[in-house]
């Protein structure tokens, strides 16, 4: 049953008189100001990280609005590799530098789940579903993430992802112009839902579009108010609660429908049901993994095709690599033998691009694509504005002579290493040919590092490779501005957009035309 604590509280608030609502609001404002005044009055001891020079609640609002700029300002203003600030009663310590990075990624006392619970606000919070989970439950979810990425499961998914790509790319027509941060993101959302939920949802384009819309409401509703005062019924918080309930209802409806039908299917839902997982764990798995998969992979895939669109040399290298795989595993002169070929009605007709791509085995996608691997690595470096979040559950942590106390929250911005000109000269330049730095600890953390790495990276890489391969071989394209002229320079990733890293709206389009459309269908 849907947890109704917050909705009931909202109903009670909204049904109260205007005078009572105003009184509650004024009390909340008073408490906020009182808390902000008291917490910023404290002065650091010699062993503590430096405080920010300005002591105001409004000083830390950019942590939620413009996190990249805020953290950079904090390190500059304090002149230290660590600094601290207050989110009401919560102490937050930002760390940087090689020593701080190594400690952050390896310290046993820094807890990922506890960190995101308070600082993120980007994941829908439902008690017993996505929050307040016991350690055993969390471990169970992690095991399921590994299971759905086993070789047999990904081998089964591969042609299904290819088919989703074919269907959606065909809908784009033979030529045109689109915003990659909308169209490519839509495609990744579809393949993520396909990979991590169930066929009842993935096969229904209207339901997938509805889910994407609702997740967009969650993104836009993540404000300082909804994170710092999640109990206060601001308009943004009300929208988030409503969207969360709608997502919950859609996913739970699909789970119930499967159970009631008794008809097994080859998808992630069936895997979870066969393991005997209860419905709350399953819906929590769906909610969390869609967020992680669609947001991160969608943003990365959008930038990947954009970067290649502005770099003819690497675009051709990637295209040549995929063409080589096709020549080895699915020559155009032969009729494919796998499941994707069954749609070929005429054995004398050259197989479609999608049918051929589906014949490339998983082992080749994962082990024989060094160019695509390099392109993905560089894309994650330049266009992944992640700030990792943890909570120190103990003991006290010592970094660069400073103490991070038990109970404090700790953040590490990936920009500290990925945009460091000493490690990556001209750091904003997209260059997949950069040599790998082996001198510094964790000089690349695109998938995380140390004791915490991205659990879904195997699936994410496969999705990005398939989408990129089909787009490169199916279309000739370039990056243009809003007027249709070649974009020079390319748009710059917006690291202040902590969720999607999108450039300014309308500043970037892909102008495309079907490649050899008269000869080979997608």
TrEMBL record:
Keyword Methyltransferase annotated: no
Keyword Mitochondrion: no
Signal peptide: none
InterPro entries attached to this UniProt entry: Cyt_P450, Cyt_P450_B, Cyt_P450_CS, Cyt_P450_sf
Transmembrane segments: 20-42, 280-305
Cofactor(s) this protein cannot do without: heme
SUPFAM superfamilies linked: Cytochrome P450
GO MF terms, alphabetically ordered: heme binding; iron ion binding; monooxygenase activity; oxidoreductase activity, acting on paired donors, with incorporation or reduction of molecular oxygen
GO terms under biological process: sterol metabolic process
Coiled-coil region: none
Alphabetized UniProt keyword annotations: Heme, Iron, Membrane, Metal-binding, Monooxygenase, Oxidoreductase, Transmembrane, Transmembrane helix
Family: Belongs to the cytochrome P450 family.
Name of the protein this chain belongs to: Cytochrome P450
Species whose genome carries this gene: Heliocybe sulcata
